[in-house]
Each structure stands twice: as C-alpha cells, then as structure tokens.
Amino acid sequence: MQALERTLEQRTAFADTWIGAWNSRDLDQVLALYADDSEMVSDKIIKLGLDPNGRLRGKDNLRVYWGRALPLRPKLHFTLINAFVSPDSLVVFYRDELGREICEYLRLNGDGKIVQGSANHIHG
Fold this sequence. Notes:
Layout: H1 2-24, H2 27-31, E1 34-41, H3 43-47, E2 55-57, H4 59-69, E3 79-85, E4 89-95, E5 101-108, E6 114-121
Parallel strand pairs: 1-6
Antiparallel strand pairs: 1-2, 3-4, 4-5, 5-6
C-alpha cells in the first residue's frame, strides 16, 4: 500500500511540474516531460491544420505543434485547480490566462514520462 501511496503522491506532484513547465514557456522543458513516442490528441491540432483527426505522435511532431501554438498565446499562464490521479495517469484540471477551464488527461510510462495526452476543452 505504501508504494501505491507514493505513486499517487508523485502523480499529484507531476501536475505541479507540468503546470510549471508550461508557465515557463520553455518548449524544451515541456517536451522533457514527454516520451519520444508520445501521442497527443486535441481539437487545437485540427485548428492549426496539423492533423484532421487532432492526433499527433512523436516528440518531433509535438515540437512542431507547440512551436506554432505558443507564439499565439504570448500571455499563456496556467493555474492548477486540481489533479485527479491513478496509478498510471492523471488528469490535470486547470484554468488558463483567459479564465477557461481545461482538463488534460496524461498517461505516464514506468519512467514517469507522458506517453499519451488528451486536452479536453469545454465546447462552445
């Protein structure tokens, strides 16, 4: 039971690390949290014309995506509302600089790197 508690505490701490990386606006710091073969799903991928299904795989593709997206958000700032954790994943519930609430599902591998992410925005 102690190992599971430690894992859940690490997942909660990871949410703070993830938020801090984004708030730094340092793309290398953000990408360091992701596995080389990670997959990301977001409606923003579609809006930027990178994939009609909103799905990208691989850190190089994530670099292109976020390299295009970050300049569009010069005042980007996330505030953690809560983190929901499980043994292999977490959902980061946060507010952006525009006051929008977003949930980001992040599945992690055994090395603590993100292998799958899904940005979930309120539709409308």
